[in-house]
């Protein structure tokens, strides 16, 4: 069943502490203000086995800068405060790996997440049977632990994961790691419909979603689209510039571009383009009018000259006839 794209929700992604604590905080605010309904905040791990080069490198940089789990919760607290000041209601999820939870303590981790108004968790390397009761404990404390479904997941397991998952499920668009572009083709659409047959919860589709065109197509068949590596690459590219742009504003613009939302700047450009086109048309019309007038004047001049010549000839003829 085809959906209306206007109801599409976007989940953005940042690696906390990349390239620095403050820069990642500014970027996170920008993504939220740009219209993201959800934001994955990745607590970096030294061996992020589900992630591609962009996110893996970002994790490495963050860890070298001294990032740890306590700083992660401090990051979330500061982000929540800034979002509150801007009346932004983006839901925050922590994306990380099992070792982070185990080393910190699962109950302690969940409690800190709840204290900081975190919406939910995404922990891709914990299986349903070996999750250390994470699904059960998350539900008890009021956190949405989101299950992942992959292309090779059996129908029976899809049903089991759906039942255990929080308010939606994360569907991995293809096998492999994050970062590589996912082709939005008939095979992908068939796969999504197969999952929907056994999953009655909303689907968040991620892995390799990077462009407005992909989002526009996917928005007709899933309610939530996840963009990860594209955000991390954009943050990295902006921070490499010597001009030191405002990450908050730039990431806000980038998010709105993905969602197809016109920014005042884009509207201004569009208005200027239309004004320029109108001006050109006016100039063309004036030029054509002047040309037509010139041609009309030339025609009248020729006609008058012809009339004058004819009159002189006629007068001369009458003068020659009078003497007779």
Describe, in short, the structure shown.
The protein is α/β, with parallel strands linked by helices and 324 residues long.
Tell me what you see in this structure:
- The protein has a nine-stranded parallel β-sheet.
- The C terminus is likely disordered.
- The chain has 324 residues and is of the alpha/beta class.
- Strand 7, helix 8 and strand 8 form a beta-alpha-beta unit.
- The longest helix has 58 residues.
- The N and C termini lie far apart (103 Å).
- The radius of gyration is 33 Å and the shape is globular.
Helix run count = 12
The number of E-state strands comes to 9
| Class from secondary-structure proportions | alpha/beta
Spatial gap, N to C terminus: 103 Å
Radius of gyration: 33 Å
Strand content: 5-15%
Largest sheet: 9 strands, parallel
Order of helices and strands: EHEHHEHHEHEEHEHEHEHHH
Helix content: 55-70%
Mean pLDDT: 84
Q: Per the principal axes of the C-alpha atoms, what is the gross shape?
A: globular
User: Which spans have pLDDT < 50 for at least 5 consecutive residues?
Assistant: 305-324
Strand order within the widest sheet?
5-4-3-2-1-9-8-7-6
